[in-house]
Amino acid sequence: MIDRQLNYGRHLIKQFLKKASPYETVLDIGAGGGTDLKLAKDVNPKAETFAIESYLPYVENLRSQGITVYELDIERDRLPFDDGTVDVVIVNQVLEHIKEIFWVFHEITRVVPVSGKVIVGVPNLASLHNRVLLAMGRQPSTIRTNSAHVRGFTRGDVLKFLDDCFPHGYTLKGFGGSNFYPFPPVMARVLARIFPTMAWGIFFLLEKQREYDDGFLSFPVRERLETNFWLGEGR
């Protein structure tokens, strides 16, 4: 039986948080029930934890845990932090749900300081089971037309996106895979560790290397991308 909890890669999130420590502030974008922020507190109990979340039951639960929660639209609104003031940003199983990836990464990169960390977890379009589905002429399960997912990701494409928009702006400090369809948990853990780029989910620990220059907003304009991406008021 497949264990879908492995899709969230909690062991990798905790491993990356340990590498990112010490840190004082952690922001989880799309925090859900607060599991990743709890891991951040486990690693560094003195850290301040913040969440972006809009689903009311999750908002109430997060606040009951003493987490500061902001309800906003990440595809339109600015994050409520000054430039370079958030040591670690977590965005786990969120990016596949959004269209406005340029705006979201603009805001993430704005609030993270040089040497700050960004932890990303996304479904893997190049997972073994998706490769098999494509070979059979079928739609990959992580980006079905009638699903909530609107984007697909692979390891190479994520890194190319970052370097195209913000050249030499991020360094990859950690990478791993979690879960491995269609195998049961014991086998899935082993296979994901051995073949991370074929796992169900892929996870990145990124370190910001230089001052940000609004590259995520200028890229779609410079490349004349024929989609009406949101790039902020007046742009």
TrEMBL record:
A biological-process GO annotation: methylation
Domain of life where this protein originates: Bacteria
Keywords from the UniProt entry: Methyltransferase, Transferase
Pfam families: MetW (PF07021)
GO MF annotation terms: methyltransferase activity
DNA-binding keyword on record: no
Protein name (record): Methyltransferase type 11
Protein species of origin: Desulforudis audaxviator (strain MP104C)
Lineage of the organism: Bacteria, Bacillati, Bacillota, Clostridia, Thermoanaerobacterales
